[in-house]
């Protein structure tokens, strides 16, 4: 926890902070280059890094995050605030994989847990990250010529009644905004219902993790069945088109035959 008395310069009040991020020094770093990790601001202290207030740098990161949000795919899934990954200055791909390991750890760690009769005790957060994996994105900081990596997990709290009403209004608004068709197969409506299903899966998993895992398996099976039906429909349509072309070759040849030219018509008249 950052002590307010240790922060140099005037502190900002909580009223001036809008969904703020507090930058705290990472553990195991020296006094040279300070590598930090963004965590949600919980109130009480201002942005500090090594005892110095860095409001301008944090505002720049907030603007970069706002621009990155506009480029991310839209979703109705309720997610937590992004967390900046703690990476060295010259991070490699393996460093990024190691930083994401706590968020993407498997439910079963070893083969012995699978063959054992004892139940595997797993936390709800771990199951939720397995059912709905967190999304990652990068933001390029031109001022410092660095790439900031963020991870965003789904929210771990149940939705309130007010949030459910807002979700219903947002769902109806998105359907009208994207001009989804009311009847027939509509890809837009299908994508919207998929996002709504993810939010339902999140709430069910928080309430009962085992039921959430079962619901995730049922949803995957339904998607596989639907994809199989679509593949069969496309294959049967192509087969029918080929059979129709084979049954009426003369009709196709007459349509593809080019009309006679003017010189050929004149030759037939003079002959």
UniProtKB/TrEMBL annotation:
Alphabetically sorted, this entry's keywords are: Coiled coil, Dynein, Motor protein
Query: What InterPro entries does the record tag this protein with?
Result: Axonemal_dynein_light_chain
Q: Name one GO cellular component term.
A: axoneme
- List every stretch annotated Disordered: 248-271
In terms of superkingdom, the source organism counts as Eukaryota
GO molecular function ontology, one term from the record: dynein heavy chain binding
Question: What Pfam families does the record tag this protein with?
Answer: Ax_dynein_light (PF10211)
The chain's coiled-coil residues are none
Q: Which family does it belong to?
A: Belongs to the inner dynein arm light chain family.
The protein depicted here goes by the name: Dynein arm light chain, putative
Biological source species? Bodo saltans (Flagellated protozoan)
